[in-house]
Amino acid sequence: MPDDLDKRGLLAEIRRERARLDDLIAQLDDDTMLTPARDDGWTAKDVLAHLTAWEQRLPGWIKRWRETGDPGRPEVGVTWEDFDTLNEHDHLAAKDNSVVDVRGEAVESYKVALLTLAALSDHDLAVRPDAADGPSWSWIIGANTHEHYQEHREEMEAWWEKNNT
């Protein structure tokens, strides 16, 4: 696991990577957003919806952790072994959503993620909610925001370059 970031560093990384993702998404018109961008047939719209789904999990994890001491990650009753099934479930749930709706939901989800992070202290971010040797909130939030944005932005940039050169 990478080093934990304090709140200021985490916010800076999230904002930086989200701006880069948003810049790329802004270049894609609605028709392009519906063009397969991955070998598995996912479109740029699907990738954005995927990022949003994971970002939307953060407030629920933190709320459950505060209430029960267990964040219930990745979902209550779901294990990390079910990760691919969970991603496919999310994909199918958002597949028929319009590009406009997915873009709007991504904007709102990002705002909520920032508000969620704003409510945490550096002490909270250092807590390891799953296990004493598990990842900290800083790492968990980073993995589901700036690192996730970067991963899929780079994937979409490679697709965009390949198909527009």
Give an account of the 3D structure.
There is one protein chain. The chain is an all-alpha fold and 165 residues long. It has a single domain, classed as dinb family like domain (Four Helix Bundle (Hemerythrin (Met), subunit A)), CATH 1.20.120. The protein has 8 helices and no strands. Helix 1 packs parallel to helix 8, helix 3 packs across helix 4 and helix 3 runs parallel beside helix 5. The chain starts with 6 loop residues before the first helix and ends with a helix. The model has no long low-confidence stretch (mean pLDDT 93).
Describe the structure using short key phrases.
Four Helix Bundle (Hemerythrin (Met), subunit A), mainly alpha, single chain, 67% helix
Describe the protein's topology.
Elements: H1 7-26, H2 30-33, H3 44-68, H4 83-94, H5 99-118, H6 122-126, H7 137-143, H8 146-163
Short description:
It is built from eight helices and no strands. By secondary structure, it is mostly helical.
Largest sheet: none
- Name the beta content range: under 5%
Number of structurally distinct domains: 1
- CATH superfamily, by name, is dinb family like domain
Which class do the helix and strand fractions yield?
mainly alpha
What would you call the shape? globular
The CATH C-level class name: Mainly Alpha
Residue share in helix = 55-70%
Question: Tally of extended strands?
Answer: 0
Q: How large is the count of helical segments?
A: 8
Low-pLDDT runs of 5+ residues are: none
**Any idea what the CATH architecture is?**
Up-down Bundle
